Amino acid sequence: MKFANIKFIFRKELRSFFNSPIAYIVIVVYLTILGWFFVSNLFLNNMSTLRTVFEMTPFLLLFFAPAITMRLISEEKKSGTLELLFTKPIKEYEIVIGKFLAAWVLYFFTLLPTLCYYITVASIGTLDTGTVIGGYLGLLLVGAVFLGISVFGSALTENQVVAFIISLFIVFILFMLDKVLFYLPTQLATILEYVSVDYHFSNIARGVIDTRDLIYYLSMIGFSLLLATNVLQKRRIA
Amino acid sequence: MSILVNNLTKYYGDAKAVDGITFEVHSGEILGFLGPNGAGKTTTMRIITCYLSPSSGSVKVEGHDIQTDSLAVRKLVGYLPEQNPLYLDMNVLEYLEYTAQLQGVPKSLIPRRMKDMVEACGLGEMKHKDIGQLSKGFRQRVGLAAAMIHDPKVLIMDEPTSGLDPNQIVEIRSLIQELGKQKTVILSTHILPEVQATCGRVVIINRGKIVADGPIADLQRSLHGGEKIILEVEVPEEQSFEMISVQVKQIPAIETVSLINERNGVKRFSVETSDATDIRKDLFNLCVEKRWGLLELHRIQTSLEDIFRQLTS
């Protein structure tokens, strides 16, 4: 693995996010929706908590993650620039990781302004810092899983809309799994619960950082990027 | 030997795109790769550049196998793909830098290489513009500049002059010739004069198979044994084509005589011989003897177009 190659891909993709309207639209729309939900309830509930941020963000991410990543690979396929990348001395996974990291850093910049809420709430009430740190860590990990899956979705097709819908579909299932659990037999439910993104998120968001949850997230990210790499390698052989 | 293609075959599903082709390219040679659309040119080039893997057979570039030592091959090769795909949202310098980085050009050399390429490809005025704003000719130059940014030993270009105007074609051609002095070049095209102007050797491929391989002059000689002569004479109106044709055919070695056009007693023929004997003198003597007014008499060399058509239709 050459970190330099990952860095080159990463920098190029991040620059093209911020050179195009994508980054700004994502940041503005996310903050607008989140801000509305956050502020409208804040004084009504009269509780010093960032729960709205941590509850709403995974839900918004269902749409934002596929939207951010849908063009990452599919556009290269469509415009033919994948041929340029594939004939350079770099490996497929370096491409995938570089692109994934760029999307993740964009997501990080999207979350960053929500620290204003933290400052606001912390200054007018007492806030449990542990849950806040846990919550943000959880958000970064959930985001990484969703983005990883969406990178895979983007690798599957040269059509961005199709990539968006496939990614949305997979991410939606992972997100909804533990909300339908009580319809299912107990044995099955425990397995599905483990696969569910939300279940692990709620653990971390409580401020409990358990290695089991971390392992879950890291393996989900690794697995989805592996799948994306595989799709690209298959294309070379086809 | 710079490039060795050995018994290369490529299937797309059930369709055979390339069917057991074998050829080699020497260092410092410019090879023209010809063939009708769908003959397998692009597929072959994509395999040599490691974009696709072969179904069977092998390719070695400067001694490195494209399958077992793919990264080394990709480092050595500069490639200009068929449609010249580019990142339209990057400006010229950004794009050249990105390409140089991915090709593994050492950081300290990148500014020099970029400057050299901008100069060599005449991109000086465009270097800060987004590629999306450039005309097709300039995009082609950007593609070429990027393909050569790492000073590759081997340059592979798929239709490098497609979509350019005649002036640009001449420019790109001379650029290729300039480069060909130090590099191994393969270029595909179906513009035949281009091959005649730039390539020392051609490989003609049809339906996935090689149908000819050699220097252009050799191909011309081997494929068309005879010669073609254009003859224009002024004869009395009452003499028909058939009458003249019979008389002309009395010269030995003439195989066919055909009428090209006829106007006010001026008849234009094309005469073909079965071997390489020069019959121009005989034709001249015939005209003198019959008192035909000889207006034109010249020999036509078999053009690459003829070879191409003979081999691929």
What does this structure look like?
The complex is a heterodimer of chains A (238) and B (313). Chain A is built from eleven helices and no strands. In chain A, α3 (51-79) runs antiparallel to α5 (92-111). The mean pLDDT of chain A is 90. Chain A has helices at 3-19, 21-45, 51-79, 81-86, 92-111, 115-124, 129-156, 160-176, 186-195, 197-205, 211-237. Chain A is globular. Chain A is 83% helix and 0% strand. Chain B has 313 residues and is α/β, with parallel strands linked by helices. Chain B is 34% helix and 30% strand. Chain B is elongated, with a radius of gyration of 25 Å.
In short:
Chain A has helices spanning 3-19, 21-45, 51-79, 81-86, 92-111, 115-124, 129-156, 160-176, 186-195, 197-205, 211-237. Chain A is mainly alpha-helical. In chain B, the strands form three sheets. In chain B, strands 6-7-8-3-9-10 form a six-stranded mixed beta sheet, with helices on both faces. A four-stranded antiparallel beta sheet of chain B has the order 2-1-4-5, with helices on one face.
Helices and strands in order, then pairings?
The complex is a heterodimer of chains A (238) and B (313).
Chain A: H1 3-19, H2 21-45, H3 51-79, H4 81-86, H5 92-111, H6 115-124, H7 129-156, H8 160-176, H9 186-195, H10 197-205, H11 211-237
Helix pairs in contact in A: 1-5, 2-3, 2-5, 3-5, 3-7, 3-8, 5-7, 5-11, 7-8, 7-10, 7-11, 10-11
Chain B: E1 3-12, E2 15-25, E3 30-34, H1 41-48, E4 56-61, E5 64-65, H2 70-76, E6 77-80, H3 92-102, H4 110-120, H5 136-147, E7 154-158, H6 166-180, E8 184-189, H7 192-198, E9 201-206, E10 209-215, H8 216-223, E11 228-234, H9 241-248, E12 254-263, E13 266-273, H10 280-290, E14 293-300, H11 304-312
Parallel strand pairs in B: 3-8, 3-9, 6-7, 7-8
Antiparallel strand pairs in B: 1-2, 1-4, 4-5, 9-10, 11-13, 11-14, 12-13
Helix pairs in contact in B: 3-4, 3-5
